[in-house]
Every structure is written in structure tokens, then in C-alpha cells.
Amino acid sequence: PLIRLEDYRPSDWLIDTVDLDVSLHPQKTRVRALLALRPNPEGQPGAPLKLDGDELVLKSLAIDGKPLDASVYTVTPQALTIPAPPAHDFTLTIETELDPSANTKLMGLYRSSKVYCTQCEADGFRRITYFLDRPDVMSVYTVRLEAAKAEAPVLLSNGNLVAAAELPGGDRHFAVWHDPHPKPAYLFALVGGALDHVRQDYVTADGHKVELAVYVEPGKADRAGWALDSLVRCMRWDEQVFGRNYDLDMFNVVAVSDFNMGAMENKGLNIFNDKYVLADPQTATDGDYASIEAIIAHEYFHNWTGNRITCRDWFQLCLKEGLTVFRDQEFSADERSRPVKRIADVRTLRSTQFSEDAGPLAHPVRPRAYKEINNFYTPTVYEKGAEVIRMLKVLIGDDAFKRGMDLYFERCDGTAATIEEFLGCFAEASGQNLDHFARWYEQAGTPTIVASGRYDAAAKRYTLDLAQSTPPTPGQTEKQPVVLPIKLGLVGAKGDLPLKTTSNAYAGDGLVVLDQPSLSVTFEDVAEAPIPSLMRGFSAPARLDLDLSDADLLRLFSADSDSFNRWQSLQSVATRVLVAAGKPGADADVLAATADKLGEALRSFLKADGLSDPAFAAQVLRLPAPADIAREIGGDVDPDAIFAAHRKLSTAIGTALLGELPGLRGALAASGAYRPDAASAGRRALRNELLGLAALAAPTEAADLCEEQFVAGDNLTDRLAALAAMTLIPGERREALIARFAKSYAGEPLVLDKWLMAQALIAEPGTLERVKTLMQHPAFSLGNPNRVRALIGGFAANLTQFNRADGAGYDFVADIVVALDKTNPQVASRLLGSFKSWRMLEPGRKRLAREALSTVAALPNLSRDVADIAERALA
Ligand code: ARG
Ligand code: ZN
């Protein structure tokens, strides 16, 4: 059924308290739930009680302690209905029995390598007991857990531990947890298992003592330190920057090895995919250290933006996700390099969200309707949702933004809120009308800003013409103008020129607001012909169409005061030439000429100040990916032609830099033991970026370097970079290093995931066979989401091989989606999302991709998850 935003109405019943008694058993877990029900004054009086379920088995049912006669209720695995419940407060006792070991969907209560754990967002709690499983029903939970001591010496739930003891006989024990904060069911969690932990005491800024702990599989406690350290840092940051203190006596993080997503913000008991917890120099890369820091922060920040203030309904998902992504991005920016973080985030936004917006799965930041909510945990809700918050801050200014956040925390604390309530706080705090701005939540699609400038030398006047448009998206053919904050500067020979204008669109401080289809801004007293630097810091999630010459862009690269636009300027030069070269009938000379210009610019940049900020330099060296070029071309895409042009340009740049390579790599080499900090990581990033270019420009010499670096490397970052560079060099030495890598990391599944992925990404015709062979490797398993994402997800991200001209890539991925759908629909539907860009392909591939999608769509008994993606992708 289609669920619509406009159909929202409050629940007829509320549940004030939940007392859960869970007796853990691998196949027969018993759950007794005691619910205190009360008619909702805002609901329909005398309404029936309809509780949600999902694959549940009811064992007993009682009202106010009295067993219920079967004639007064109906029950199926999906619902428990009492047509005529008491017209007043009453308690309902529900007993269910579950099989956590058989739960391969990884929603509700399941077992992951012998650890009991839960995932209840968005609608997993109904797989544990019958419930009003909707986020606006908030309850105080008390949870008693019981288990065999040998199997589950650790028993955790939300809130604070209030009792624990052995049971008579000594084999079993129990623990009671109480969470005083009312919460929706999706934030419920429990964990039981044999786990090691690291711990630390923390005192909040407002003087509350908190016991922090990170729980991991036995023997892995020495890999939990970074997560704990990140937790302490982000807790302090949230106090300092957002004025938010933690609010329980305990905060626990648990890492499990089978998890559908990244992590989950359950109140006081965050559960993580172990990929985002475990780190030591030998088994985690610099990128892993950074994502662990970011995701630990993300889940912790949800304690206020998500838990204390939750969502009224799932249409408001961006209320917590967009805002919390914004908060974690800001934390990482403060902990590391702000410009480099911004560049990395924009790369992700463009590759994941812009591509989503450009295809059949496009939807607004706040969708209006859904069939399966789990399919809306998307880059649009998360990443574009964060961009909307960032724009709001730019538009109303830092001070008003801070006042708006404070007002939101004060006014909405303890409630299940909406986007309207959120925006209302900022309208009030800033005195600005945000009705037009709110369109960002309703309208899908990536706007394009067309800009052009004219300089009148005699009048010393510079006029900037700006226009916006948004292409149609599914279900939204007519688009309205949105509010686009455009941060800008006019760059002269000696840097930024003063901005003087009487235009209403100019908000001061280098900010022009384009909120109409088009407008012009005239700047006065402009002493010389400037180069416009627009969208500084990527001030809006939009495409910019501004026709600057290569020479002007190269000037911006060296002269712009905005680091983001310095980076962007070279990306723009490369994008333009690759877009041209990736189309049929391209002129090879143009590519060669641009390659010379880029090579020279990069060479002098690296010599002059490449070493002053290596992390930034690494970003500068990394060209837009072939998939970015495909998206820019937008239609009739030939992945092979784009890839060939990309290879040519990268190889030419590598050749131009070859002379500098040994010197630079030498200067960047580490002294001393591995440290994960941003500066050290930046040096490794640049050094390894150079290795990748060398692999294209001088393969034989580079193969030597890869082997040396693999042997000498004392950390996974450098060893994996050696493997990745070697994958660019076909031949026996590559195969030997691949084999050697697997041997070095046998028994390290998270490292072998990277090994699987590196091979899945090889842009050669043999890759499909290689991937099929790897599916038989002991390191692979279709049952583990991380393994699937690494190998099959990696292959689906391989532009040329997934999009093979013979369609074999599509058929392979479609077959796996179908197989996986039977055990884990969420992972299957995510994988099917790899088809999201099929409509932009040339006719042959397009037809084959459509056929593969149609074959999936036509199958009987598909999950709602997969059926929804298949239908929308084909519509
Ligand atoms: N709230 C989690 C986070 O972003 C994501 C959980 C989504 N899980 C799901 N099955 N849809 O931090
Ligand atoms: Zn989140």
C-alpha cells in the first residue's frame, strides 16, 4: 500500500510504559511485553486497537492481567486487533516467541556471530512484539533480559542498568535496564553475548558522570580505542558547539559483524556495523579512521537530533538525518581540515545524490509517499538534507542559526516533531520568512544555475546574470524556483576585489540570493576585469553552468581565496574536456592539449606548495571519476568511451608528473610509527595518489614501487594503496600481489572486504569472471551484508564492467538481487539501486538494463523492498 504524508493522523491509542521481559535463546526467544495503554485525547474515542506485527507468533494475551478470550481479538503474524478494547486506560500483556537465528533479514532481534542484537529502525520492533510501531508513540521502557551466562555474559539495553543477578541454578542470569526518556519503539535495542569492552568515565559540561563503553567481539578490544576516543571528542564538541549534554548514566556502543546499514542511534545503546568501530593501523585505513570518527559522532549526535527530538512520522526522516549529517560534517571539519572535508563531502554528494536526482529514483528531501520506508534512507534524505541545513545557516547567518537551534532544542524537546516546527524556530529566530526556502524539502531534482558576467571597462561596472532551472523528476514535471544562496567573489590580479552593489539580491558578505527564475546583479567601482568565483564553498546543492576559459579557471586555481573553488576550478577544466572526449567523434588533440595544461599546472603547484597541505593536494590530483563524467554527459552515455578518455587524461598527467615523483614521494614518506591524525593521513593520501598516477604512466617502475610499499608498509593504508595501484597494471605481478595480500590478511574479514572490492573494481573485461570466482572464496558470503557490498556492490560500481555492452553485468547483479531477496530484502534492494542511472545509457545498454530490471520486476513473491525499487526504476 502507498503511504501518504497527507494521510497522517495521530494514533488513537498511546503507550505510556513498556515492560519487556526477554528470555534469550538461539531459536526460541520468549518476549513478554506489558504495555500500559491509554486513549489518545487527540485520537478517535472508542477506536479499535490495531497493533503492528511482522512474522510474529503469539503465545498469550491478557488485558489487565486476565487472559483474553480468542473471540475478542484477531491475530495474524502481521497484526493483532482488538475491535472493542476498554474505553479507558488498561494494560495489555503479550507473549511472543521468536527465532533470532533464523532472522536473516537483520531486522528486529537477530543473532550475528553468536551475539544477540536488534535493529528496529524503521519498523523492526514489530518483529519482536505487537506494538504501535510508529515514531509518534513514545513510551518509557523497562527491560529485563535473561540468558544463559555462558552464551551471553553481557546483557545490555537502553538507559541505565538497575539490577543484575544470577538465577537459581547458576546457569542463567538476568539484567534490568530502565530508560527514563520516553522514546519511540524504533530506538529500542538489546544486546546479549560474549563481548569484550573498553571503557572510560566522562563528566559532562553540566557535571553529570557517565560511564562510556565500547563492546566488541572477544579478542578485539585493542581495536576499540579509536572509537572510544572519537566518542569522547564528539561529546565534548556537542557541548561546546551546540550546547548539548548527554543525559544518562551510561552510554554503550556495540560492534556487530552482520548489519544492514552503518550504525543505529538506539537511546544509550548505539549498535554499529563493526566496520565503523574496529580500527588499528594494520586492519584499518586512514579512510576507516575518518569514517569511524564521523559515524560515532553521527550516532551520538542523534541523542539530541533524533532521540530527544524525534520524528512525527517517517516522512520527517530528514528532520533527524539531514540535521545529524550536517552536525557530523561540522564535527569532522573542526577535527580535521575544513576545506578538505568540504571537498570530500561534495564529491560524495555529487556521485551519490546528484546521480539519484538525475534518475528514476529521484525524490524530494521530504518524500510525499512511500511503499517501503527502508528504501528512503537515501543520499537525498541524508546528504541533500544536510545541504539544506547548511544553506539555511548561510542564509540567516551563524548567530540566527544558533538561536534557531537553541529554540528548537528548547521547544521541541521530548516531542515527535515536523519539518514545519523545525523551520518555524529559524523563522522566529531570524525574523525571516522561510516559506520559499521550505521548497527545498518538497521539490526533487538538482537545480542548474546558469551564470554569465560582463565587464564594462569604461563604467567600471561588472554585471552578473544568473538564472536557475530544475529538470523534471518522476511525478514532478513542473518545477518552481528555489532559494539559492550563491557565495561569490570577483577575483582580480591581486586577489578579491571589493563588492559594491545596490542590488536587493545582495545580502552582504559575498552572498547573492537567487530566489527567482533569473536576476542580474551589478557591481560598481570594479577596478579591473574580474574572474567570477561563484558558489564558494559549494554554497548550494546545484550545478553551475559558467563558461570560463581554461586560462581563467587555471588563474582561479592559483589565485582564488576560496579553497573549495581552487579545487573546483581544476575539476572543471578536467570535466569539460572529458565530457567532450567521452562523446563520439571527439577530437583527440583537444584532450592532449588540455592534458598538457593540467599537467603543467599540477607540476608547478606540487613543486611550489604541494607539501604545505598534502591532503588538499591529494584532492586536487584526483580527477572527477568516469561516473561523474557520465552524469555530466547525461544521455546516450558510452561508458567505454568515457573511461578511455579518462585513462588517457590520467596517464598524460601522470607522465607530466613523473619527474617529480621520486622527490615528492620521498619527501612525503613517513618518519616514525603510524599515526591516524589528519596531517599524517594527508601525506599518505598524496603519496598514494602519486603512486596511482605512476601506475598508469610508468607501469613497470610503478609495479616495483607497489611491491616495495606492500612489503615495507607498516599500515593498511599504504599496503592497500599498493594493491589498488597494482590493480591498474595487468599481468602476473598483479596476480601475485593479489594472492599475497589475501595470505597476509587471512582471518581479517574487514580487510578482505577491501581486497574483494579492489578486484571487483578492475576496469577490464575479465572482471565479471573474477568476481564470480571470488564468490566461491572462503572470504565471501552472501549472508553477510559487508561481504555483499564489497564484492557485488563494488562490481556494480564498476562503470565499464557493470555496464558491459553485452549486458552480462546487469544479468549477474540482477540474479544476485533475486537470490538475496529471499534472505535479506534490504540488502537486495540497495543493490538493485545500482541500476538507478540506466536511463542515461546509449540505446543498446539501455535496452539490456531495462530487460534485466523487467525480469526482476516480473518475478512473483518479491519483497516489498525490491518490488518498490524495480517498479520505480522502470516507471
Ligand atoms: N538511523 C540510522 C542512522 O542513520 C540508520 C538506520 C537505518 N536502518 C534501516 N534499516 N533503514 O544513523
Ligand atoms: Zn542517522
Task: Provide a brief overview of the structure.
This protein has 875 residues and is α+β, with helices and mostly antiparallel strands.
Describe the structure.
The structure is a single chain. With 875 residues, the protein is an alpha+beta fold. It is 41% helix and 21% strand. It contains 27 helices and 33 strands. An 8-stranded mixed beta sheet has the order 6-5-9-3-2-12-15-14, with no helix packed on it. It has a 5-stranded mixed beta sheet with strand order 17-18-19-21-20, with helices on one face. Strands 27, 28, 29, 30 and 32 form a 5-stranded antiparallel beta sheet that branches. Helix 15 runs antiparallel to helix 16 (678-697) and helix 25 (825-832) runs parallel beside helix 27. The longest helix has 22 residues, at 588-609. Arginine binds next to strand 20 and helix 2.
The total count of helices amounts to 27
Bound molecules: arginine, zinc ion
Biggest sheet strand line-up: 6-5-9-3-2-12-15-14
Coarse structural class: alpha+beta
Strand content of the residues, in percent?
15-25%
Mean of pLDDT: 98
The general outline is globular
First CA to last CA: what distance?
17 Å
> Any low-confidence stretches, pLDDT <50, length ≥5?
none
Rg value? 28 Å
> What's the helical proportion of residues?
40-55%
The biggest sheet amounts to: 8 strands, mixed
Total strands: the figure is: 33
